Amino acid sequence: MSLLDEIVSAFADLDEERTINLVKEALEKYPLNEIFDACRRATDIVGERYERGEYFLSELVYAGHIFNRILELLLPRLERERVSILGTILLGTVEGDVHDIGKNIFKAFAEAAGFKVIDIGVDVPPQKFVEAVKEHKPDIVGLSGLLTLAIDSMKRTIDALKAEGLRDKVKVIIGGGRVDEYAKNYTGADAWADSATKGVKLCKELLGIKE
Ligand code: B12
What we know:
Layout: H1 3-12, H2 16-27, H3 32-51, H4 57-74, E1 88-93, H5 101-113, E2 116-119, H6 126-136, E3 140-144, H7 149-163, E4 171-175, H8 181-187, E5 191-193, H9 196-206
Parallel strand pairs: 1-2, 1-3, 3-4, 4-5
Helix pairs in contact: 1-2, 1-3, 2-4, 3-4, 5-9, 6-7
The chain binds cobalamin.
């Protein structure tokens, strides 16, 4: 079993100390995004076990705690790619959804790539996005969400931007475990991403920035 597979298995079994030790070992051997991917695969397994009734809410909470400990190890290792600012991203988790680990990872990757990120938190109502767009005039609005119901909140947020005449002034990218091409079309977003690296690449494309 590779070290990354061992991380997936230890994390999915919620063996906190073993997971942390394996991540420390992996830091010397693998690129950061591969370690992040392994951790995300582990949370998918945690989610499946929760759906099957093998894990309960307390296990979801614990998985979140382990992931946050992993982030403390990984995020300081992200290196800044450039000094000038590529553009501003207004970022938040949409109304009804409090999942923020993925949002925080995307934020860290986007900042490392040279974007300025304004993070307005979780469970953000559409009107709060509208007000923040007026205040900060971002180039991109990033909507995060992991629940199926988040897709409707994303749509309501984009509709609110349209109603205020702001939709044409920003690009909108949606992100999270359940977004896809269908969700992009349904919500009226410009792009979707289910990983932070993909998200950063698309943000550059949306602003016409060449790699
Ligand atoms: C940890 C966890 C929690 C923690 C969250 C802690 C936190 N601070 O975030 C807690 C315990 C709070 C929680 C609560 C709940 N959860 Co929960 N949770 C999870 C779990 C296990 C992991 C989520 C996670 O952090 N993944 C790791 C990150 C890194 O992945 P990610 O978020 O997808 O992020 C990546 C990309 O998507 C992308 N990305 C993310 N955001 C953005 C934004 C942009 C703009 C871009 C470009 C990219 C991007 O970049 C990230 C890095 O690559 C998932 C299982 C799963 N498969 O997702 C369930 C899961 C999401 N939860 C679920 C449920 C049901 C709930 C609860 C309703 C449970 C309950 N009965 O109360 C509540 C909902 C609370 C609410 N109103 O939001 C379900 C959702 C089902 C559904 N289809 O709606 C899941 C899928 C579990 C399952 N399989 O049943 N949960």
